[in-house]
Design a protein that fits this description.
5 domains, five-stranded antiparallel sheet, 36% helix, 25 helices, membrane, alpha+beta, Thrombin, subunit H
């Protein structure tokens, strides 16, 4: 407009020097004209100019208002949420020589409604969110306000984040290292005092490490994105929980180096040092990494475009698409790069050198011939459809004949992927099932590294039903004639299921090991089979690894505990979860797990099942038999629920228990009577000698261990033995 001499170019002149620092440029919601632009320019001393864009005239100043109530206040951070502004202001102390410890808490977080209507701008009353606080940076999501400690904050107060919920006036304290700490509803201004708010959590917060925050931004889903000084990207949800997303490939970030963050649907875009990273927020997988020719880049809002990103630079506006289709006529260069990248990872894992191996070094070095031979064979095979094949070296021709079946499988897989892309909606599901089955089978027959495991996680998340059917097919799971679950998988496949990267190795980026993925599929589609599957895996483990071997899965975390962990992480808990927990504990046949299941059954008062479990598992070992019997004897002493089953319990009594041992256990667990005036309770639930008599008779009449030792001597024909004949 200035170029064409149109009035309304005062917007640029309004921030010409001399002016205080500009704190924020905020677009406000305006109900005056749909689609119109209302811009609030907030200056450091609190003066706020509200501008309105009129199509024939350009930008026009509507009104100038003062946000702060005090003349000495200074705004440091501001954000807008709906029709309200939220800011953090500094309120300097009145005395010139004030105590510096008190000066550290001289900031205040305020909120104020700013509505633009037909009659101009209406400014609401100031609402104190937090006072006597350290400096905070305020960031707004659609329903919450995140308060991030400034870099200059005290070490004590920079160990946690604050999340304000305007609708409920609730303030949540959370620490990334510990998760949710506490929340409090602020009913009055006296409760908004920062020091009073933390009074009950000082001891807990003192043990936390200070926050490691380089850059913060708000995602489109309402979470807080954080980038640490080491390049770790994570998200803090409004409920206070934190989730790791991705690690940027940097050693450490300088305090002044800019990092741009923005989310587009489920895609996280990040620009650092002229490199654009595109990461899937759900799985943490790196989708693309592009080197940009410009350093200073800003993301633009691009509504309606889910597969492209608009970038604003000094030279213009650019669009970056991350879903462009591959050129099907020339697949060779991409495939060649994939082969060399995979070869780099393979050789790097087996290299003793500390220098990093790159694709360029691999192509130019000539030391590794395997990727060169493979790319030549692949290019030779793929070019046969389009043009006559070029001559292949004799050394490669023999390798080509050996790889012919693998190449056919690869080509059929690529053809199937093309069918998925081009098929109508009615046929996509059937193609996806076949594709997922081939992919799962392929990965289970290759090295189970972190990349393959991350890919399997995304497959199970995107196609859960197809992945479940593919798993059943690969493991050959089925029920036999007796209704028992059997698996005819090869030992190599079992080792991939149980011996891949474990939870302590892949806990980042939201991945879980393959065994946990399969257990989650069982819980979703065939929960009755899960205990039998865990029992099958334990049988295979005992045959393949030595007991408590650290290389085997049982040497780390027992398989039944891993399955219980999957059960505990279910989104929706159901009534059958307790029964599933019992079955998983019992199928392990471990003493501690069996006793835990027994205590759980006692807690649920399922006495019939208690007796059945005791009869079944007392046969496993004498020590477990003694523990089970002692537990049930203690329960018998406390109540009369087990009385109908005494004829089944007494045969379980271990041989080494004596009558005095039994009486000791009973006396230790007798309930304390509150009425000692009469010998028997009116309720009739006391233990009597008559109930205990059959057990004591059984123990007393049973031959003792000493009797068995001298049994032969006691059963000799004559006792004592005859006197030997005397010799003259």
């Amino acid at each position: 407009f200035q170029r064409h001499s149109i009035a309304g170019a005062d917007l640029e002149r309004s921030w010409q020097p001399p002016q205080p620092a500009l704190v924020g440029l905020l677009f406000l919601q305006s109900p005056v004209v749909l689609g119109s632009w209302v811009l609030a320019m907030v200056w450091e001393h609190g003066r706020t100019e509200v501008w309105h864009f009129v199509v024939p005239l350009g930008w026009q100043l509507l009104q100038t208002v003062e946000l702060c109530q005090g003349t000495r206040a200074r705004i440091l951070s501001v954000c807008s949420q709906g029709a309200s502004l939220v800011w953090c202001e500094e309120r300097p102390p009145l005395g010139a020589h004030s105590d510096m410890s008190k000066c550290a808490f001289r900031f205040c977080v305020c909120a104020r409604a700013l509505e633009v209507g037909e009659r101009g701008v209406r400014l609401g009353t100031v609402r104190i969110v937090l006072h006597n606080s350290p400096e905070y940076q305020v960031l707004a999501s659609p329903q919450h306000i995140f308060l991030v400690p400034a870099a200059a904050s005290l070490t004590t107060t920079s160990k946690f984040l604050l999340i304000w919920h305007p609708e409920t006036a609730k303030l949540t304290i959370t620490a990334p290292s510990a998760g949710f700490i506490r929340s409090k509803v602020l009913h009055s201004s006296s409760e908004s005092d920062f020091r009073k708010l933390l009074l009950g959590s000082v001891g807990l917060l003192s043990d936390f490490t200070p926050l490691d925050i380089h850059t913060s931004a708000v995602s489109n889903s309402g979470g807080l994105l954080l980038v640490s000084m080491k390049g770790t990207v994570s998200v803090v949800e409004p409920d206070g929980t934190q989730r790791h997303i991705f690690d940027l490939e940097v050693g450490s970030l300088a305090r002044g180096s800019p990092v741009r963050l923005k989310t587009f649907g489920s895609i996280l875009a990040c620009v650092l040092a002229g490199v654009l990273y595109l990461v899937d927020q759900n799985s943490g997988r790196l989708i693309a990494k592009e080197v940009l020719s410009m350093k200073e880049v800003h993301f633009l809002e691009s509504p309606g475009e889910e597969d492209s990103i608009q970038l604003l630079t000094q030279s213009g506006i650019y669009s970056f698409s991350f879903s462009k289709p591959e050129d099907s006529s020339r697949p060779e260069p991409c495939l060649v790069e994939m082969v060399f990248e995979e070869a780099c990872r393979y050789y790097q894992r087996r290299s003793l050198s500390s220098s990093k191996l790159t694709v360029e070094k691999l192509k130019k070095g000539g030391a590794f011939q395997a990727p060169v031979a493979l790319t030549a064979i692949l290019q030779h095979s793929l070019q046969q459809k389009q043009k006559p094949a070029q001559g292949l070296q004799d050394t490669y021709a023999k390798l080509l004949s050996t790889m012919s079946l693998e190449l056919q499988s690869y080509m059929s897989l690529e053809l199937l992927k093309t069918c998925v892309v081009c098929a109508p909606e009615s046929e996509v599901e059937s193609y996806c099932k076949e594709l997922v089955e081939q992919e799962v089978s392929r990965i289970l027959h290759s090295d189970m590294d972190k990349d393959n495991l991350a890919y399997l996680n995304s497959v199970f998340a995107s196609f859960p039903k197809a992945a479940w059917k593919a798993t059943r097919s690969c493991l050959q799971l089925q029920q036999n004639g007796d209704g028992l679950l059997v698996a005819r998988a090869t030992p190599e496949v079992w080792k991939k299921v149980l011996g891949g990267p474990q939870l302590d190795e892949v806990g980042q980026n939201g991945m879980v090991p393959l065994f946990e993925l399969i257990c989650a599929s069982f819980l979703r589609f065939k929960p009755k089979w899960l205990p039998s599957f865990v029992e099958l895996t334990q049988q295979y483990t005992s045959m393949s690894w030595a007991y408590s071997s650290k290389e085997g899965p049982e040497g780390r975390v027992p398989l039944y505990k891993r399955a219980l962990g999957v059960l505990a992480r279910k989104n929706k808990q159901s009534e059958g979860d307790k029964e599933m927990e019992l079955e998983l504990l019992l199928c392990s046949k471990r003493p501690k797990a069996v006793l835990q299941a027994l205590h759980l059954l006692i807690h649920l008062k399922r006495w019939q099942r208690v007796v059945e479990v005791a009869e079944k598992f007392s046969k496993l070992s004498p020590l477990l038999n003694k523990e089970i019997f002692t537990t049930l004897l203690a329960e018998f002493a406390q109540h009369r629920e087990l009385d109908p089953y005494l004829d089944r319990l007494w045969p379980l009594c271990p041989a080494e228990l004596t009558a005095s041992d039994i009486l000791t256990v009973v006396l230790q667990h007798l309930p304390h009577s509150q009425e000692d005036t009469v010998p028997f309770s009116s309720e009739g639930n006391q233990l009597t000698v008559g109930l205990l008599k059959p057990l004591l008779q059984r123990v007393v009449q049973r031959p003792s261990v000493q009797d068995e030792m001298y049994l032969d001597a006691l059963q000799s024909p004559t006792f004592p033995p005859p006197t030997p004949p005397r010799e003259h």
